[in-house]
Design goal:
- The structure holds two protein chains of two kinds.
- In chain A, 67% of the residues lie in helices and 6% in strands.
- By secondary structure, chain A is of the alpha/beta class.
- Chain A is built from 19 helices and six strands.
- In chain A, α10 runs antiparallel to α11, α14 crosses α16 and α17 packs parallel to α19.
- Chain A is elongated, with a radius of gyration of 28 Å.
- Chain A folds into two domains: 112 residues, Response regulator (Rossmann fold, 3-Layer(aba) Sandwich); 285 residues, ABC transporter involved in vitamin B12 uptake, BtuC, CATH 1.10.3470.
- Chain B has a six-stranded mixed sheet with strand order 6-9-10-3-11-12, with helices on both faces. Chain B has a six-stranded mixed sheet with strand order 18-21-22-15-23-24, sandwiched between helices.
- Helix content of chain B is 33%, strand content 25%.
- By secondary structure, chain B is α/β, with parallel strands linked by helices.
- Chain B contains 17 helices and 24 strands.
- The two termini of chain B are 26 Å apart.
- Chain B is globular and about 70 Å long.
- Chains A and B meet through α14 and α15 of A and α10, α11 and β20 of B.
């Protein structure tokens, strides 16, 4: 493909990469490894610095990952033939007790393996003066390094998790917008779906002790109901020629109202812990399940739009519905498909959200339709229909997420974030227009 | 007809020693990949009608857009009354006294004639539009033009001819001295064309310079004083109308001698293929019955609004019919949508290819494939290799001129766009093809190719139902002619070889 064309099609990816580079540069700071990575590094250093059979004290604080660190160091050092005198996790007080115990037993030690935080405690740095009888052990801590906060794998997964719902719902919105329509009801359908799924699990599937089957059934029910609402919108649009904006605006109110009625205005949280598998679990290479689902759905949607007859029909209907009809395209069925798909995906989004938050509430998804439309538009899909790309929408969703996340990391206030986000959406579309005019 | 008052048109002298009203010299204009104009000269005097002829792609539209200020020339000069101008926008061109009437009118459909005419230059008193004053001016003008247009109707309800009159009125109100008209007669009936020509002659008498672009050579002889012919972005001829013959015009436009305008064929007509009986819809179609035979071209003709397009749309399922039976090869078809008609083996080449025939923003390939996808699909997936090979085959067979099949179809010239529409139906291998104005807005060379193709189709045993307003085309191509008037068939001509245009016109006016 010609470079100019490539840039035209995927220019937004470039913008996304630049944004990532920018936030990486801004959040570049000192990092210390934690958990397993830190343990591996420390064990290696201990074995290099001390003779076989060295006596080691393992000290870790009580931060996340520290328990893992301590256990791993102890296990690996013992396996390598070192003598671990004690393993301490917690506060300096706990370490002092351990040291006193060793001292009273008349022992001494060669090495203290500590996390970065624990290695910096006064107790450890002043060890030679406070506990002279213990000898002068070397303190080994994991080496620090410089790395952007933004690019830490936890942060990147965090971005993906936060955007999963919006990105999945945006698939359906892209279909609808490509046909020249719009679906304002998706935000309400997210709420309706979350409430339906959570309500079914609480009332029908046995609440806190619900089985996996019951939970799956509840989720499917919620998704199907949302698909039906989408289908109803589609019927109104195709049979009675009511503008999609109006129909889906009405369904937005109906959906939201139904969610409040079903939940009686409350949050539904009587759900088993295992319900969070979809939203918070990570079974495949450490990738969160919601993100895996997102990637699979985008791959399917991309194939649909680029390789399948239905995809061509969707574009044709949006490009010129009359020409499409006179060429034998079943315009009504194609439109109906788009709205049903949008409803189903909004339902799925609601289920994921309920799973992430382990509850269902009618307040979920508030304003999401706008974020979803923003993701589609930032991704280069024209609101006049007939043009647009699935991967563009994915890029758009991630652009929005990256900007939000980057601003969080750099401590931009949430009100300011809204202003920036609004301007970014405008800027992205402006860029698109300028590019087309060229 | 009473003449427009002198105040509307400032009289200028036609003395040849004076600088010409409009003169272009050495105009060059390139677009990415195309040299649209390579040094075109053109002169238009006050009080003359200059016809600009050329095939599609010869550069007429580009030239017109440069005069109208929609494009800026890369090189060359444009002068009005000998004064050099450089138009940066259509507004500047309009201010200099140029009015351009494009084929697609520049009217706001929801506004009335008066509102459209004064759009952007409303007569106001204290911020309020002086409606009455505007209306008086416009109705006086229409009276002088000798035409009747309902001033309170939104323009979308006006006929094409009336909309055109509104455009002309707009030019006159804005005191234009140069009127550029692109294919002004393409959508008019012959009666309306006559009225338009009377008006044009009157404007000419008052000193207006009219630049007139048309593919209809007969009309050029009736209205033009001089003719400039373009080919491939350059001048090939500029001479008074009496110094050139019709055949010479065609030869100069296409750049080679042309043996005949309508290719001959000898196909033996077979049995009836499509039989339509008692077709009705509202007032437009009031009980129409006909048969199209195997290997036959049946022409439907009549005035615009006679119900021709409406009839074929009913046959094709594009509109729901009130009554009527459609049979194909003796079998009654239950056609409720174009999809059913296509499935039964019909194809419709629509009158308006931009609005109904093509998705202009989409690639040529996708437009070509649209009706054929069902057959080029396996389990919902498009067989792209097959699609591509079929497209290549038809690009070659129809000699479609394009640089890249992924190009937007809207970027092609009119003739090539029409070939894409043809290709998509030919690839569908339709048994009955309905051609609604198949050569509208298409140059002579491409017309001939389309005629050849129609002959090949009937030779292969297909049936063609053709609608055309161009009577020479109807007489030259059809095996049989049906004339419609106000939704009814008012006559059938079976001996086409000895039929005349007058005969058709008489039936058309019933």
């Amino acid at each position: 493909m010609k470079p100019a064309r490539w840039l035209a099609d995927y220019g937004m990816i470039l913008v996304l990469v630049l944004l990532c580079a920018f936030f990486s540069a801004v959040t570049y700071s000192e990092q210390s490894p934690t958990g397993e990575a830190a343990a591996r590094q420390v064990v290696e250093a201990v074995l290099k610095a001390a003779p076989k059979g060295a006596r080691v004290l393992v000290v870790a604080s009580d931060q996340p990952g520290d328990a893992v660190f301590a256990a791993r160091v102890e296990r690996d050092l013992t396996a390598a033939g070192a003598r671990v005198l004690a393993t301490v996790t917690g506060e300096p007080r706990n370490a002092r007790e351990a040291l006193q115990k060793i001292q009273s037993a008349g022992g001494s030690m060669d090495v203290i393996a500590a996390t970065r935080v624990a290695g910096g405690w006064r107790l450890i740095t002043d060890l030679a003066s406070d506990f002279p009888s213990l000898g002068s052990p070397r303190v080994i801590t994991p080496a620090s390094y410089r790395w952007p906060n933004f690019l830490k794998s936890e942060n990147l997964l965090n971005i993906a998790n936060q955007i999963a719902v919006i990105a999945i719902v945006a698939i359906g919105m892209t279909l609808v917008i490509i046909t020249g329509g719009i679906d304002l009801s998706v935000g309400s359908l997210i709420a309706l779906s979350a409430v339906l799924a959570a309500g079914f699990i609480r009332d029908q599937a046995g609440g806190m002790s619900a089985s996996t089957g019951g939970m799956v059934l509840g989720c499917l029910l919620a998704i199907v109901v949302c698909g039906a609402v989408g289908g109803f919108s589609g019927l109104m649009i195709t049979r009675f020629a009511i503008p999609p904006f109006i129909v889906t605006l009405a369904m937005m109110l109906v959906g939201s109202g139904l969610a409040y009625i079903l939940a009686q205005g409350q949050s539904i949280y009587q759900i088993p812990d295992s319900f969070v598998w979809l939203g918070r679990g990570a079974d495949l290479f450490g990738l969160p399940n919601a993100v895996v689902l997102l990637l699979v759905l985008y791959a399917l949607a991309q194939v649909l739009m680029s390789r399948m007859k239905l995809g061509r029909y969707l574009y044709a209907v949006g490009g010129n519905a009359e020409a499409a009809r006179l060429s034998g395209v079943p315009v009504r069925r194609v439109l109906l498909f788009a709205y049903v798909a949008s409803g189903l995906l909004a339902g799925l989004g609601g289920v994921i959200m309920a799973s992430q938050l382990k509850s269902g509430s009618p307040t979920y998804g508030n304003m999401y339709e706008l974020y979803v439309i923003a993701a589609v538009v930032v991704g280069g899909t024209s609101l006049s229909g007939g043009e647009g790309r699935m991967l563009g929408t994915l890029t758009g969703a991630f652009t929005i997420a990256v900007i939000q996340n980057g601003m969080n990391l750099t401590n931009v206030e949430s009100y300011t974030q809204k202003v920036v986000l609004g301007l970014v959406i405008l800027g992205a579309v402006l860029l698109d227009k300028l590019r087309q005019a060229r | 007809m009473s003449p427009p008052s002198p105040s509307v048109l400032p009289l200028s002298s036609t003395n040849p020693t004076n600088p010409p009203l409009l003169s272009l010299t050495g105009i060059v204009k390139s677009f990415p990949g195309v040299r649209a104009l390579r040094g075109v000269d053109l002169r238009l005097d006050a009080g003359e009608v200059l016809a600009v002829l050329g095939e599609n792609g010869a550069g007429k539209s580009t030239l017109m857009k440069i005069i109208g200020g929609a494009h800026a020339a890369d090189a060359g000069t444009l002068a009005i009354d000998g004064q050099e101008r450089r138009f940066q926008s259509p507004q500047e061109s309009r201010a200099a006294g140029v009015a351009v009437i494009y084929q697609e009118f520049n009217l706001v459909p929801a506004l009335t004639a008066v509102e459209n005419i004064f759009l952007g230059q409303e007569v106001t008193t204290g911020g309020f539009v002086a409606r009455r004053c505007e209306c008086e001016q416009v109705s006086a003008l229409f009276q002088r033009m000798g035409v009747e247009v309902d001033l309170d109707e939104p323009c979308r309800r006006l006929s094409t001819a009336q909309q055109q009159l509104v455009e002309i009125a707009k030019a006159l109100i804005h005191k234009a001295r140069i009127l550029v008209m692109d294919e002004p007669t393409a959508a008019l009936t012959s009666h309306e064309v006559e009225k338009l020509f009377i008006l044009m002659r009157e404007l000419r008498r008052q000193g207006m310079g009219i630049l007139y672009i048309s593919h209809r050579l007969e009309e050029v002889f009736t209205i033009a004083d001089r003719v400039t012919i373009l080919r491939d972005g350059g001048n090939v001829s500029d001479c008074p109308i009496h110094a050139i013959t019709r055949d010479q015009m065609i030869e100069r436009m296409v750049g080679r001698p042309l043996d005949q305008e309508f290719p001959s064929r000898s196909v033996k007509r077979g049995g009836p293929r499509l039989e339509v009986s008692g077709l009705r819809r509202g007032k437009a179609v009031q009980g129409i019955s006909f048969q199209v035979h195997r290997g036959e071209i049946l022409a439907l003709t009549g005035l615009v609004g006679a119900g021709r397009t409406e009839t074929v749309r009913l046959v094709f399922g594009a509109d729901p019919r009130d009554a009527g039976e459609i049979r194909l090869d003796g079998q009654v078809l239950d056609i409720r949508s174009p999809r059913d008609a296509i499935e039964a083996g019909m194809g419709l080449l629509t009158e308006d290819r931009k609005l109904q025939g093509l998705v202009l923003r989409h690639p040529i390939r996708e437009n070509f494939s649209l009706p054929n996808l069902r057959r080029w699909c396996r389990r919902g997936f498009v067989q792209r290799r097959r699609e591509r090979s079929e497209l290549d085959r038809y690009i070659a067979a129809l000699r479609i001129r394009l640089s890249d099949p992924e190009e937007r179809v809207g970027n092609l010239s009119g003739g090539n766009q029409q070939k894409v529409v043809l290709a998509k139906w030919l690839a569908r291998d339709c048994e009955v093809l309905i051609f609604d104005e198949p050569t509208r807005g298409i140059d002579v060379g491409a017309k001939y190719e389309i005629y050849l193709l129609m002959n090949e189709l009937v030779a292969a045993g297909k049936s063609i139902l053709m609608i055309s307003s161009e009577l020479p085309e109807v007489l030259g191509m059809a095996d049989r002619i049906l004339v419609l008037h106000e939704g009814r068939i008012t006559g059938e001509i079976t001996d086409v070889a000895h039929a005349t245009q007058e005969q058709i016109l008489q039936l058309a006016h019933a």
